[in-house]
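Quick review question:
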């Protein structure tokens, strides 16, 4: 009987210890991490202005102009009261060629080989211009860039003097870039001459 009670106690201890050790502890949950992403957008020649008229009414405008080797883009938002004035500037520059209108949307589209080379869309308080400079003639490109300058003045109320100052700065930067390029060409020529002498 003593042996039986020893075996019973031993079996109970074994069952109890097996239950304890067979239950693996639950690992703690890892801390939750929050991820976020951010991005930045670069826009060339962006101009925002706020104008308060004589009746203390605030008008704001935003202008974005992008120029690259193969395209020109111009986007602007402005007070709806200036829409007719903006339309007149565009009409003066482009006329009614390739013009269409629906309700309060005005479009000028120029196509070459079934591709849109140029598109200008005007709605109340917004204007967008797109020009594929690879496909357009240089005179048409100049015409559209000039239109962009004129629209900036109408929309933001900037003076032509400010535009001339920007043009002067752009010219100075271009001249600096040209001088740097000339120096690099001279350096490259000297390296070629030195390489020829070593051979």
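Suggested answer, residue by residue:
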């Amino acid at each position: 009987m003593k042996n039986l009670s020893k075996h019973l106690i031993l079996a109970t201890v074994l069952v109890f210890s097996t239950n304890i050790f067979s239950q693996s502890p639950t690992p703690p949950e890892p801390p939750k991490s929050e991820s976020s992403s951010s991005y930045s957008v670069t826009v060339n020649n962006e101009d925002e202005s706020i104008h308060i008229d004589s009746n203390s009414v605030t008008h704001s405008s935003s202008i974005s102009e992008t120029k690259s080797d193969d395209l020109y883009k111009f986007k602007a938002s402005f007070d709806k009261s200036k829409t007719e004035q903006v339309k007149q500037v565009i009409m003066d520059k482009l006329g009614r060629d390739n013009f269409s209108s629906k309700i309060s949307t005005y479009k000028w589209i120029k196509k070459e080989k079934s591709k849109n080379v140029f598109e200008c869309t005007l709605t109340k308080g917004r204007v967008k211009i797109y020009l594929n400079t690879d496909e357009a003639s240089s005179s048409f490109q100049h015409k559209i860039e000039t239109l962009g300058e004129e629209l900036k003045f109408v929309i933001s109320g900037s003076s032509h003097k400010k535009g001339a100052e920007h043009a002067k700065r752009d010219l100075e930067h271009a001249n600096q870039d040209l001088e740097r390029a000339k120096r690099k060409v001279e350096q490259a020529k000297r390296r070629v001459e030195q390489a020829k002498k070593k051979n």
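Why it works: Residues 31-45, 47-56 have pLDDT under 50 and may be disordered. The first strand starts at residue 46 and ends at 52.
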